[in-house]
Amino acid sequence: MIYAPRLPRLGAFEAWRDAARALASNDVPADDIHWAMQGDDAGLFGDGAPLPAPREMMVPAAFVSLARRVCAHRAPGAHDLLYRVLLRCRGNARLLGNRADPQVQQLEAWAKNIRRDMHKMKAFVRFREVTPQEANRRQFISWFEPDHRIEELIAPFFARRFGDMDWVIVTPQITTRCAGGDVSHEAVQSARLDLSDETEELWRTYYANIFNPARLKIKAMQSEMPKKYWKNLPEADLIPGLIAGAEAQMRKMQDDAPSLPPLRAERILDRLPIREGLGDLNACARCPIGAMATQAVGGAGPMGAPLMIVGEQPGDREDLAGMPFVGPAGQLFDTLAAEAGLDRDAAYVTNAVKHFKFTPRGKRRIHQSPHKSEVEACRVWLEREITQVQPVFLLAMGATAAQTLTGDGSALMARRGTVERGREGLPVLITLHPSAILRSEESDRLRALLVQDLRQAARMLEEIRAL
Ligand code: URA
User: Fold this and answer.
1) How does DSSP classify residue 48?
2) Ligand 1: distance of its center to the CA of 198 in Å?
3) Cα–Cα distances in Å, from 127 out to 132, 140, 196?
4) Which of 294, 351, 437 is the pocket-test mutation for ligand 1 (most atoms within 8 Å of CB)?
5) pLDDT tens-place string over residues 129-154
6) 61 with 31: CB under 8 angstroms?
């Protein structure tokens, strides 16, 4: 008997889940199922046999969140492979933790494509205001062409971020509306909307002003902003001109740069409010650490990530690379996070302090803990990141992060593994810093504790994703 479930364009995950539950709980082999989307050519199988009645079945929570993403992928075999892995998961709850398994690897790769597509949509959706005169809420419209069927996955992000306005996002197949905070989707075919107007002129002016020639990385820009998105971005045609003028503008910025503040000015600078609109972390002179560092190291990860991981400060390697947690502590963190089933790519990773503090010793640069006043001076940047990323909870790694996020500087080991309320009102899970393991004689014990806490973070993440 052949089953041929047809998944609707809207609610595809729920339809797949219901059909898979009915089929798997009745031990139907994967080869007897032909998965397809509604509207696809039914081929040889027509409607297939009616689905059997579902029976009770337990599935690991991690599988559900993976399936939710993979179901949005356009790869033809995605629903079939999900079902095959579902069958295997039943007798093996740890299967998804086995990154060497080729089927798990394939699903993870597809889930990663979905995360990336969502990241691009968050970054490149541009709204145009269309508020009619009599309206009491502002109204916006946008056009976007995602690679995958991500409209339902991404809608909660836009609803959270733009909850105080009404908006419509039109994609070639789905129109998503948010009115008064209520989100609805409609499956309609739409042709590309041309949205050029004065708002775009404003955006172009803004983009030209925030463009920082000193941080120009053409390759990174092209990979972050692939050409296929350019046609819908009002600022795209400015980019070649900005790149061409970057070197001259950078020289001018260097000539105009203020001289470094003397170290003894540290206390006074600490008390100065940050200049609004300064925008560029690299220019921060609220404390003297930045004067020695190669560059400021901001966070990395998707906007809207439910989890923000906060460390202490960039180390030697991070200072050179401009990315957080890429040196030995970062590598150890990656290993332990993988062991704990915590997906680093789903988190926004950053530090309490954005510059590397060190003392030179010969050719080496030896890490120095930041002073309390330096951590306090840098908190404004972390707060900006929290406002921008809008995490649901934070993971504080080490005493510096715990202190800055909760305001409580008491001993870390008594607090680790617990969730405290942070200054921003968000839950903060406290744990130790990976570099404590690298330095300690009790490294096995500390390693086990950190893995335990990372597992807790992974569970909290799963609970959020399962919502
Ligand atoms: N230690 C940290 O706290 N952060 C980094 O980015 C690297 C090492």
Assistant:
1) B
2) 43
3) 15, 6, 10
4) 351
5) 777 777 778 888 888 999 999 999 99
6) no
| One-letter amino acid of 69 | R
* Average pLDDT of the residues of the chain: 84
Q: Is 322 in the pocket of ligand 1 (CB under 6 A)?
A: no
pLDDT of residue 132: 79
253: pLDDT strictly greater than 80: no
Token pair recorded at residue 121: 């949509």
Task: Give the DSSP per-residue string, 150-207.
Answer: -HHHHHHHHHHHTTTSEEEEE-SSEEEEEETTEEEEEE---PPP---SHHHHHHHHHH
Domain limits of the chain?
6-120, 125-187, 200-255, 263-466
Q: Higher confidence at residue 73 or residue 245? A: 73
pTM above 0.70, yes or no: no
Record: fold of 263-466: Uracil-DNA Glycosylase, subunit E (3.40.470)
Is any ligand 1 atom within 6 A of the Cβ of residue 319? no
Q: What span, in angstroms and rounded, lies between the C-alpha atoms of 308 and 298? A: 13
Cβ neighbours around 453 below 10 Å, total: 22
Closest-CA residue to 439 (of 371, 367, 375): 367
pLDDT tens-digit series, residues 369-380: 999 999 999 998
Please give the number of the atom of ligand 1 that sits closest to the Cα of 311. 3
pLDDT higher at 47 or 257: 47
CB-CB contact of 122 with 142 (8 Å): no
Which numbered atom of ligand 1 lies nearest the CA of 398? 3
Rounded CA separation 84/93 (Å)? 14
Which of 289, 310, 318, 332 to mutate for ligand 1's pocket (most ligand atoms within 8 Å of CB)? 318
The better pLDDT of the pair 217, 176 is held by 176
Q: Would the CB of 299 count as within 6 Å of ligand 1? A: no
